[in-house]
From TrEMBL:
Residues 629-694 form the Mechanosensitive ion channel MscS domain. It comes from Pseudomonas kribbensis. Residues 140-199 form the DUF3772 domain. Residues 586-627 form the Mechanosensitive ion channel transmembrane helices 2/3 domain. GO terms for cellular component: plasma membrane. InterPro entries: DUF3772, LSM_dom_sf, MS_channel_1st, MS_channel_C, MscS-like_channel, MscS_beta-dom_sf, MscS_channel_2nd, MscS_channel_C_sf. The keyword GTP-binding does not apply. Its main location: membrane. It is found in: Cell membrane. It is a multi-pass membrane protein. This is DUF3772 domain-containing protein.
Length: 792
């Protein structure tokens, strides 16, 4: 065991890098140079690829626990990428040969004169080359399909092994038998560990051989400087950029947090690559160390994520930069635990990965898992106790930030419950279950913290870009011709959609990943979940997403610009009335937006022949819930084309009378005399009886007054007075001439009705008011009184 501990210390120096699967020089053809002819894939290359895949299958079949399948799964993914690169290198050559054969044309028939011998020979050579390329592509496609099937099989095996490990019961951590494999390991385990140490020594000897020591020393020192001094310099430089180049406000704060995490990740990755190159620039790692290097890389990045995200979110050195609502005493209490947890996981998980990579017995692996779960349990328990004590003190002091932080309380409760379950599992012998809970807890912290940082950065970026106070918002206002309110709506919409998408990705990542999951595995898992059969049937190509977004934005801009040109320049210079102009402008916009949507879907790669199921779904939806909307939409199109009513008409329908102000896609806006707006569905304007007062453009208004006089008046005198008043009014038309009609004779008096015509129905009310004032004035001057209503 003493030699093993010394060897583990040497591992940290030699293998602190991302290891790649061991690939011989004959496995793959070299990547084609951009200016050189594209190479082919020989039969030897295909055999080497098949042997490589068979070796991966052998490693997978010999795995006896969940973690031993992580490395082979990554290598299968790398194998698939290599197949894709080879296929991509052959596709241009296939296209070139196809074009050349097309130029030569088909071989002439017997009835045609024989062609020249050199052309026939050239055609035969091209056909032979194309057949070879086609065969190679077919074989590569078969290998890729086998590898893809293997990925699916690995997922099933891992799921089965995980279920069996979680339900496996061993000795409790309180039992001496649980610790015996670590105290007194089996001779076979000692031998496997010694093999692992020997491979480390061989790798170190290769890197430290005479003539290479100087370069190895330089690379190791350089990687150390990048990891320490370089990280600090990168952090300070990015912070300076954010402070001096980012606008003051939320975006600067979220950018500072993101830059802090990015500096740590970037410098760590560079340092790891330098170390890896220093150790393996001449001889690749042996298979056992390559497997260990793959897993060790994941552990390193997980630990770096823990420290970098904690530093970025807590921001104890600059509390004003802190994104989450965490009280300063709580942040100071949490600060040291991130480094302690990361260092603990780095050491303990590395030791367990040594056992997995060297193929040690399951007893050693289970004991290592128990140690990890126990130590993490202790660290998190101490963290919860200290944070709980600080929170109680702050709550007692009346800190509203702590008392009202519901999310912090939920996180505290869930973490406490997870630790209680983990402790119970350790005491009852379910060690793998306890390790799984602790790992998932740490993974949840990494995922939720990382996506929280991204969501805050997205939200703040949208607020800045669409803010009318900044140059970007002003440019968008001028480019799109929108107001401040529209910019605010666009900012809220984009931020909401983006944060919802990130939240969905966070949930998916939380369940499909874990500590030790690479970005490639996450991308493949997320792509499998999101890229369902529906998207494949529609042939939506993710690579065309940028083209679709550009088509949508440019189309909307063009429609807005053309509509402004129609409204402000072209239509006002025509002889059409304003209502017709408004109808044409609205119809143009509706058709334009429909065309833009179709072009956007086409740019996205949608095949219209595969939209039958969407049409069927829409038919069912229209039949049940969308029929009213569709009916109003079609009615709106009829109103805009047939124009039974138009903007500016005075109409009366269902007791509503007013002027049409706008005809929208679904409904029409009618303005009443009191300036209020009534929204009438378009279908009612088509299906119901409607009175259009101004449809013909020559409608006249009728100003009629009904007056009652006493029985003792002179009717002829009153008739002449009323007619003179009407004729002398400037708005009363001479043709047809006004007239007075004897309407009613009753014991209460004589009722006379006087009627005149005006140019427009819109001025009837004002005209009647003016006439009534003038008639009462003249009746008073003539000593004629109106009849008094009978007393009740």
């Amino acid at each position: 065991m003493r030699n093993a501990l010394k060897s583990l210390m040497f591992v940290a120096l030699i293998l602190l890098v991302p290891g790649l699967a061991t690939v011989s020089a004959a496995d793959l053809s070299p990547s084609p140079d951009s200016g050189a002819p594209l190479p082919g894939v020989t039969q030897n290359d295909l055999q080497a690829l098949q042997q490589r895949l068979d070796g991966l299958k052998q490693q997978i079949s010999s795995a006896n626990n969940y973690n031993q399948l992580e490395g082979p799964q990554d290598r299968v993914q790398t194998f698939i990428l290599d197949i894709d690169r080879l296929s991509a290198s052959l596709l241009p050559q296939q296209a070139q040969l196809t074009v050349q054969l097309g130029v030569l044309g088909a071989a002439p028939t017997e009835t045609v004169a024989a062609e020249q011998a050199d052309i026939a020979a050239q055609r035969a050579a091209l056909i032979e080359q194309k057949n070879k390329v086609d065969t190679a592509l077919k074989n590569l496609a078969t290998l890729k399909q086998n590898a893809t099937d293997l990925i699916t099989q690995i997922a099933g095996i891992r799921r089965t092994l995980l279920e069996s490990e979680l339900t496996l019961r061993t000795d409790s951590v309180l039992s001496p038998d649980f610790w015996s494999p670590m105290i007194d390991p089996d001779p076979a385990d000692r031998q496997r560990l010694q093999m692992f140490v020997d491979q480390i020594k061989e790798t170190g000897t290769e890197a430290w051989q005479p003539g290479q020591r100087f370069y190895t020393s330089v690379l190791v020192v350089l990687s150390f400087l990048v990891w320490t001094l370089g990280r600090r310099l990168a952090d300070r430089w990015l912070a300076w950029v954010c402070i001096h180049r980012m606008p003051e406000g939320r975006l600067r704060r979220s950018s500072l947090a993101f830059a802090s995490a990015l500096a740590t990740l970037a410098t760590t990755a560079i340092a790891l690559e330098l170390l890896y190159y220093a150790c393996t620039r001449h001889v690749p790692l042996p298979p056992m160390l390559a497997t260990f290097s793959d897993e060790f890389q994941k552990v390193v990045y997980a630990c770096v994520m823990i420290t970098s995200l904690s530093r970025a979110l807590l921001s104890t050195e600059h509390p004003s930069w802190r994104l989450p609502a965490i009280a300063e005493p709580v942040a100071l209490t949490l600060k040291p635990f991130a480094r302690v947890l990361a260092a603990t996981l780095l050491v303990l998980v590395t030791a367990v990965q040594v056992g997995n990579s060297s193929g040690m017995s399951s007893q050693i692996v289970i004991t290592g898992r128990g140690v990890i779960a126990l130590v993490v349990l202790a660290i998190v328990t101490v963290l919860l106790m200290r944070v709980g004590k600080v929170r109680k003190a702050l709550a007692a002091a009346g800190d509203a930030q702590v008392a009202g932080n519901t999310l912090a309380g939920v996180i505290y409760t869930v973490t406490t419950l997870a630790m209680v379950i983990s402790l119970g599992a350790l005491l009852t012998g379910y060690v793998s279950l306890a390790r799984f809970i602790t790992y998932e807890l740490v993974w949840a912290f990494i995922v939720l913290s990382g996506f929280y940082l991204l969501m805050q950065l997205l939200k703040d970026s949208c607020e800045y870009v669409f803010s009318p106070r900044h140059s970007s918002g002003k440019a968008l206002k001028q480019l799109l011709g929108v107001g401040d309110r529209r910019l605010e709506q666009a900012s809220t919409l984009l931020a909401g959609v983006g944060r919802a998408a990130l939240l969905l990705l966070a949930v998916i990542t939380l369940f499909v990943g874990g500590i030790g999951t690479t970005l490639g595995q996450l991308a493949n898992s997320i792509g499998t979940i999101l890229g369902g059969a529906g998207l494949r049937k529609l042939n939506i190509v993710p690579g065309h997403l940028l083209n679709a977004i550009l088509a949508l934005l440019i189309g909307i801009y063009l429609i807005r610009a053309l509509r402004r040109w129609l409204d402000n320049e072209f239509l006002p210079k025509t002889d059409m009335d304003p209502g017709m102009c408004a109808s044409l402008s609205t119809l143009f916009s509706n058709i334009g937006y429909a065309v833009v949507i179709l072009l956007t879907l086409s740019s996205l790669g949608v095949q219209w022949t595969n939209l039958a199921w969407i049409v069927s779904a829409l038919s069912v939806g229209i039949g049940f819930g969308l029929q009213e909307i569709v009916k109003n939409f079609v009615s709106g199109l009829i109103l805009l084309t047939e124009r039974p009513v138009k903007v500016g008409d005075l109409i009366s329908i269902s007791g509503v009378e007013g002027d049409i102000r706008r005809i929208n896609v679904r409904a029409t806006e009618i303005q009443l005399s009191d300036r209020s707006i009534v929204i009438v569905p378009n279908s009612q304007l088509i299906s119901q009886n409607l009175r259009n007062v101004t449809l013909g453009g020559s409608a006249q208004g009728v100003a009629t007054l009904e007056l009652m006089f006493p029985l003792d008046i002179d009717p002829e005198q009153v008739k002449g007075l009323l007619l003179d008043t009407y004729k002398e009014h400037e708005t009363i038309l001479g043709k047809p001439a006004p007239f007075v009609r004897f309407s009613k004779l009753s014991p209460e008096g004589i009722t006379l009705t006087v009627t005149g015509y005006v140019d427009s129905p819109r001025i009837v009310g004002k005209t009647k008011s003016d006439l009534l004032f003038e008639i009462l004035k003249r009746l008073g001057a003539a000593g004629i009184e109106l009849a008094k209503p009978p007393s009740t």
